[in-house]
């Protein structure tokens, strides 16, 4: 069932310029979509926000709604593309008057769930069918969903919208809404990935504020990365990627898959910020359209670099509108000169390096170029061919592997290769194991005898 649009117009707000579209829904309500950029193609950042007059308009501190709305728009603006759906479902679907009656019950000791039940309503009466129809009308079939509510993920999935990632949207708790957040976590299963204590008693909170900050379990790793110097012929290279328990780094057919949890994604962004540059293969760009920023942590964006032997780089890729850097693209003499000129006209810096035996970018030669360009350290995040070449040719100094507790049955992290001697015998010297959220990060330096037959695959 299509859902017709009633009107649309440009809407500049504090976060940026959005396009506002009003839909005439089957429930008789005017639901709204705020969009920025081209939301087709790779899954955009999406927030499904239910109306909260008291929080969104009046700034009530009894909930976190208003702050979540503001933060959602800011994040979409930072991404440069995304969707915020504003659904007219006040009070988790019970309406404004009933929500105020529920507030009175909460003041008498009921939590937010029991107050709704006491009034004869469901704990959560919202309907996400209209959201799924709005997304399809906007040309969106897969999303990165900003939510702490796993029920939203399940609902969209049942309605045919693929959720490739759940992006936490946690705002600081206040004294007035701490019990409310506690009920959402304990009674409704909301996930609070950020280190905010929503279920502690005031005395415990006071003690925590006075207590010294706990030691950073990843401090040794980041201290190491901060102290490294370039080698004589190339930058110090950190190989960083995520995989499932069965070794998959993408879904079947090399489709994008969110493997890491929110905590480990922030860990990865922190690792990016510790490097001068970040490198991926063209396959990663074509599959994920990444921005390669450090938007989830404080720090400087590393220089983005793409290895693209045949220059298939899309002319509308997100990296061409990187907020702080011009993307570098490494290609070969086989690239089309006209394509080079088009990409350079769009702001990319394209440089040609020699090919290897497979007529692909010779990564050793590329790393030498990057060394001459003054890069001290380089982080590599994929894809499979790049990972395979770097490991088999021992072109890395540090491995940081994130393992997620899931089975995928998808595309393996490494590409098939005619010689895998180095891979077969590579071990980490005194490996370190670091829990990050639900994931495990394994890191260390490689110790192995080099493969002596010199096979290559880049």
From TrEMBL:
Binds 1 zinc ion per subunit. Residues 8-168 form the GTP cyclohydrolase II domain. It is an enzyme of class 3 (hydrolase). It catalyses: GTP + 4 H2O = 2,5-diamino-6-hydroxy-4-(5-phosphoribosylamino)-pyrimidine + formate + 2 phosphate + 3 H(+). Residues 235-440 form the Bacterial bifunctional deaminase-reductase C-terminal domain. The keyword Cell cycle does not apply. Its EC number is 3.5.4.25. Its cofactor is Zn(2+). The keyword Acetylation does not apply. Pathway: Cofactor biosynthesis; riboflavin biosynthesis; 5-amino-6-(D-ribitylamino)uracil from GTP: step 1/4. The active site is at residues 124, 126. GTP binds at residues 47-51, 68, 90-92, 112, 147, 152. One of its GO terms (cellular component) is cytosol. GO terms for biological process: riboflavin biosynthetic process. Zn(2+) binds at residues 52, 63, 65. GO terms for molecular function: 3,4-dihydroxy-2-butanone-4-phosphate synthase activity; 5-amino-6-(5-phosphoribosylamino)uracil reductase activity; GTP binding; GTP cyclohydrolase II activity; NADP binding; zinc ion binding. Keywords: GTP-binding, Hydrolase, Metal-binding, Nucleotide-binding, Riboflavin biosynthesis, Zinc. Catalyzes the conversion of GTP to 2,5-diamino-6-ribosylamino-4(3H)-pyrimidinone 5'-phosphate (DARP), formate and pyrophosphate. Belongs to the GTP cyclohydrolase II family. This is GTP cyclohydrolase-2. It comes from Tahibacter soli. The gene is ribA.
């Amino acid at each position: 069932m299509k859902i017709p649009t009633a009107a649309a117009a440009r809407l500049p707000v504090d976060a940026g310029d959005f396009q506002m579209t009003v839909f005439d829904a089957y429930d008789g309500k005017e639901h709204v979509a705020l969009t920025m950029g081209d939301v087709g193609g790779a899954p955009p950042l999406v927030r499904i926000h239910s109306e909260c007059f008291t929080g969104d308009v009046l700034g009530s501190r009894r909930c976190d709604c208003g702050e979540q709305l503001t933060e959602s728009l800011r994040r979409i603006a930072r991404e440069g593309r995304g969707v915020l759906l504003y659904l007219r479902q006040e009070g988790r679907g019970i309406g404004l008057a009933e929500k105020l009656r529920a507030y009175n019950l909460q003041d008498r000791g009921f939590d937010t769930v029991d107050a709704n039940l006491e009034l004869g309503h469901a704990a959560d009466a919202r309907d996400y069918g209209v959201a799924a129809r709005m997304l399809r009308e906007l040309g969106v079939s897969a999303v990165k969903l900003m939510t702490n509510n796993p029920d939203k993920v399940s609902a969209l999935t049942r309605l045919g919208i693929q959720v490739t990632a759940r992006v936490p949207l946690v705002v600081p708790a206040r004294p007035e809404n701490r019990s409310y957040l506690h009920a959402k976590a304990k009674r409704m299963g909301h996930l609070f990935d950020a280190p905010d204590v929503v279920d502690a008693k005031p005395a415990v909170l006071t003690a925590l504020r006075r207590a010294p900050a706990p030691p950073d379990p990843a401090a040794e790793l980041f201290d190491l990365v901060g102290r490294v110097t370039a080698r004589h012929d190339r930058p110090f290279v950190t190989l960083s990627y995520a995989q499932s328990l069965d070794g998959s780094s993408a879904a079947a057919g090399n489709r994008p898959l969110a493997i890491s949890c929110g905590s480990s994604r922030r860990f990865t962004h922190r690792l990016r910020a510790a490097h001068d540059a970040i490198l991926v293969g063209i396959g990663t760009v074509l599959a994920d359209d990444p921005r390669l920023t450090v938007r989830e942590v404080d720090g400087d964006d590393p220089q983005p670099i793409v290895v693209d032997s045949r220059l298939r780089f899309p002319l509308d890729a997100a990296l061409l509108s990187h907020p702080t850097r011009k993307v570098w693209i490494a290609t070969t003499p086989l690239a089309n000169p006209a394509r080079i000129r088009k990409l350079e006209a769009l702001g990319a810096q394209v440089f040609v390096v020699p090919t290897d035996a497979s007529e692909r970018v010779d990564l050793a030669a590329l790393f030498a170029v990057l060394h001459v360009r003054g890069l001290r350290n380089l982080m590599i995040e994929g894809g499979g061919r790049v990972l395979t070449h770097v490991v088999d040719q021992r072109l890395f100094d540090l491995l940081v592997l994130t393992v997620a507790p899931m089975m995928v049955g998808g595309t393996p992290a490494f590409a098939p290769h005619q010689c895998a001697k180095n891979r077969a015998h590579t071990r980490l010297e005194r490996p370190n194991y670091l829990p990050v959220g639900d994931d495990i990060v394994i890191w260390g330096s490689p110790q192995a005898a080099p493969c002596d037959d010199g096979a290559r695959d880049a």
